[in-house]
Design brief:
single chain, Dna Ligase, domain 1, globular, 37% helix, 3-stranded mixed beta sheet, 4 helices
């Protein structure tokens, strides 16, 4: 949790292990799984072989992701309150029309980073 809180960006398991060399790889896998099920962490799937992990928004702030489909890079971004309100209204309308009760939204923009273009 400390490594993810200090990172400022979602991390892969190898990146977590590189930041905290005293951690056992098996413990990291096990703890990430438990913390994800408990809703403390969020797993972000990308196009590369590694999932990335970050603290859940309840512990940080509401944000979205830019995901590179080439290298798997993930960067956070935030939107203005006005844009967030517009998205909330649009998504609530879609959910309502489908008989779905919307709790929150998560937006991932997928493309290619400057290194992969």
């Amino acid at each position: 949790m400390r490594v993810l809180a200090a990172a400022g960006a979602p991390l892969t398991i190898p990146e977590i292990l590189a930041c905290e060399r005293d951690l056992a790889q098996s413990s990291v896998y096990r703890n990430l799984s438990v913390l994800e099920r408990a809703g403390v962490l969020q797993r972000i799937l990308t196009a590369d072989e590694w999932a990335r992990y970050e603290l859940a928004e309840e512990l940080t702030e509401h944000h979205h992701h830019l995901i590179c489909e080439g290298c798997g890079l993930v960067r956070d971004f935030t939107l203005s309150p006005g844009v967030e309100q517009s998205l909330d209204a649009a998504f609530a309308g879609v959910a309502s029309g489908a008989g779905f009760s919307l709790g929150h939204h998560r937006l991932d923009l997928v493309g290619r980073c400057g290194e992969c273009v």
